[in-house]
Specification:
globular; 9 helices; 271 residues; 6-stranded parallel sheet; 17% strand; alpha/beta; two-stranded antiparallel ribbon; 34% helix
């Protein structure tokens, strides 16, 4: 059986309770469980895809992009709506980005997933927070040593003018940047899998958007292959409802959920 693991953003800034800039409560335990699962059964898996949230300091979802009428930046976790920008409550610090940013928040409203959230500076390229959790990384190198295969690292989020929760495409595609469009290479690889195990951070955002996009892009053909590992992913604090809504949505669609303890080779074959 060709099993692929899709591990979303298992990075220090999400997983380290001490130094993580956008720590997701429980993420360190998610990484421990995932590493143990890899140690038990990883040698039998055909591929491991690991996505890496990768940001510049200057980014549309960071405080530096925006200011209020007094010139103050928004605090982390501020939600900026289309009305906020239209009314002038929030405007860009760089005038040349004003028109684009207004259209951007309008596009987010149209796609109906998430409004613009100002995040703490996180997963900045070149910083320790961008690196893979120290709890998981040894298991990945061990998998490479055991199988002779290399982990497929997938970077996302480097375009400063759009959010990129999903590993498969940006929330708003930049027509001048092909990296924000559909990652057809990753999609095709996952389509060839018999089972796709999904874990990582965060359940409320990057996992949710990735799985939704994968189902949509493949017209649902991978739905029965998907297995969400529920004890190896956690939601961002304050967004637990997003995660609950996502899990309910996936249950209706027929996506399976399992814990790390439940995942065994025989179980996967029997699904």
């Amino acid at each position: 059986m060709n099993v692929h693991a899709l591990i979303i953003d298992p990075q220090q800034d999400f997983c380290d309770p001490v130094s993580g800039a956008l720590y997701v409560p429980g993420a360190e335990n998610d990484m421990r469980g995932l590493a143990a699962l890899l140690g038990r059964y990883g040698a039998e898996w055909g591929a491991i895809h690991v996505t890496l949230d990768s940001h510049h300091f200057l980014h549309i979802a960071h405080s530096i992009w925006w200011q209020d009428r007094e010139g103050n930046p928004p605090a982390p976790f501020t939600i900026i709506s289309e009305d906020d920008v239209t009314s002038g409550k929030w405007r860009t610090r760089r005038y040349e980005e004003e028109a684009y940013s207004r259209e951007y928040v309008a596009a987010l409203a149209r796609n109906g997933r998430y409004p613009l959230c100002i995040w703490p500076y996180h997963c900045l390229i070149g910083t320790p927070g961008h690196s893979i959790s120290a709890l998981l990384f040894p298991a990945l190198t061990q998998w490479e040593a055991m199988t002779g295969k290399t982990v497929d690292f997938v970077r996302k989020g480097e375009n400063p003018r759009t959010e990129h929760y999903s590993a498969l495409r940006a929330d708003v595609v930049d027509p001048n940047d092909t990296t924000t469009g559909t990652n057809s290479v990753l999609v095709k690889s996952l389509e060839h899998a018999d089972r796709i195990l999904v874990a990582g951070e965060a359940l409320s955002h990057c996992i949710a958007n990735t799985v939704r996009d994968l189902i949509e892009i493949t017209d649902g053909s991978v739905t029965e292959k998907l297995v969400l590992i529920t004890d190896a992913c956690s939601p961002v604090t304050g967004f637990e409802g997003y995660a609950e809504d996502f899990l309910r949505e996936m249950t209706v669609k027929g996506v399976r959920t399992m814990t790390t303890a439940e995942i065994q080779s025989d179980n996967l074959k029997a699904l």
